[in-house]
Structure formats: C-alpha cells, structure tokens
Design goal:
This protein has about 180 residues and is mostly helical. The chain has two domains: about 20-110, Orthogonal Bundle (Fumarate Reductase Iron-sulfur Protein, Chain B, domain 2), CATH 1.10.1060; about 115-175, no CATH class. It has helices spanning about 20-25, 40-45, 50, 60-65, 85-90, 100-110, 115-130, 135-145, 155-165, 170-175. α7 runs antiparallel to α9 (about 155-165) and α7 (about 115-130) crosses α10. The relative contact order is 0.12. Bound molecules: iron/sulfur cluster (SF4) (2 copies). The site of one iron/sulfur cluster (SF4) has 13 residues, from α2 and α4.
Length: about 180
C-alpha cells in the first residue's frame, strides 16, 4: 500500500498590529469617528459595491483600521472600490463617517506610495487636460459633425494649483519616475 506523504507545512506570517495606526486615521477630518464603530454591519449591508464584490466590506476595513492591521488595508486594491456614494454614512446608526474614514485610508495609502496605477493615470490626465479621460481628437471632430459645441477648456493653472495643494503633483511625478 502506497504511503501517504504529508504536504509541507507553510509558515503563516502573523499579522502585525500597529496600535498607533488608528490615531493616524483619527487625527484627520471625520477620521475620529472610527472609534465609535461598534461593528453592526449596516454599512456593508447597504453598500452597493459590497453587493457585487466578494471582497469589499467596509465594516471589515474599519475593524482592521481599529486593530491597526495596516498591511491588510493600505496595499489592498479593495480599498479603492468605494465609489463614495455615502450610503454607508447615511445608514450608520453610530454616525460614523464611513465614506470619509475610507477617504482618509486612501489618502494614507497614497502617502505610502500605494496608489493603484489607474488612479495615477487619471490624476495625470487631469493635470494635462483638466479631464480625467483624455478626449481623443476624433471625438472632438465628431462633436462638430453633429453640431455640438467644442468641450470647454479647463483652466490648467487652477488645476495645477489644486493638484499641488492636494498632493496630486507628487503622485504624477511618481508616475513619470516609473
Ligand atoms: S454601520 Fe457604522 S457602526 Fe455599523 S459597522 Fe458600519 S461603521 Fe460601524
Ligand atoms: S461610500 Fe463606499 S463604502 Fe460607503 S456605501 Fe458607498 S461604495 Fe460602499
């Protein structure tokens, strides 16, 4: 009879807890509401994104943030699935500003250089044209042929200033450096 061989045991990396992480979140505007989340799950059950995703759960993200498990939050592309519809904020019985806490977490991810490439591309498009999507010349011509006026030109000086203030310029430079 053939002997069964045991599969080699994998080393499980323990999750690191950073007790200071929640304070990083709580010092930002509306981030302080993280501490009053009592994990009822109303945010997740009312979130339209969670309905269509197997992994996106705002309640879980907030719990991870409370526990300081930053490595499970900031590098995760899941964090960027929030559409900022604010349904969770409206439904939270504790008045946690859920969508704002998620925004704070995304900002921390950006600070740590964990922005998904697509968002860097979008920021770069806004910087160059004022539009998140670069409108092709062909599309502009098509507008003319159907009698539509040209799209308004963005005030790039203002866009530049806004991006500078929001830290977007650094993000765009990081793309250029890649
Ligand atoms: S609805 Fe509010 S209290 Fe309930 S889990 Fe979500 S954030 Fe926490
Ligand atoms: S704001 Fe984000 S987390 Fe909240 S319900 Fe909308 S998609 Fe879900």
């Amino acid at each position: 009879m053939a002997q069964k061989t045991e599969a080699p045991k994998k080393n499980v990396e323990p999750l690191k807890m950073d007790p200071s992480f929640k304070y990083e979140v709580m010092k930002e505007h509306d981030g302080e509401t993280l501490k009053i989340c009592f994990q009822c799950g109303s945010c997740t059950s009312s979130c339209p994104t969670a309905r269509f995703s197997d992994s996106y759960r705002p309640r879980t993200i907030l719990r991870l943030a409370q526990l300081g498990i930053r490595q499970k939050i900031l590098p995760s592309p899941t964090l960027w699935l929030c559409t900022a519809c604010f349904t969770c904020t409206d439904r939270c019985p504790q008045d946690v500003k859920v969508a704002s806490v998620l925004r704070v977490l995304r900002n921390l991810a950006v600070k740590e250089g964990q922005t998904p490439r697509i968002f860097i591309e979008l920021a770069s498009n806004i910087y160059e044209t004022g539009y998140a999507y670069k409108i092709p010349e062909l599309r502009q011509k098509k507008r003319e042929t159907v009698g539509l006026p040209p799209l308004p030109k963005a005030s790039l000086d203002r866009v530049d200033r806004l991006l500078e203030l929001a830290g977007g310029s650094k993000l765009i430079k990081s793309k250029e450096a890649q």
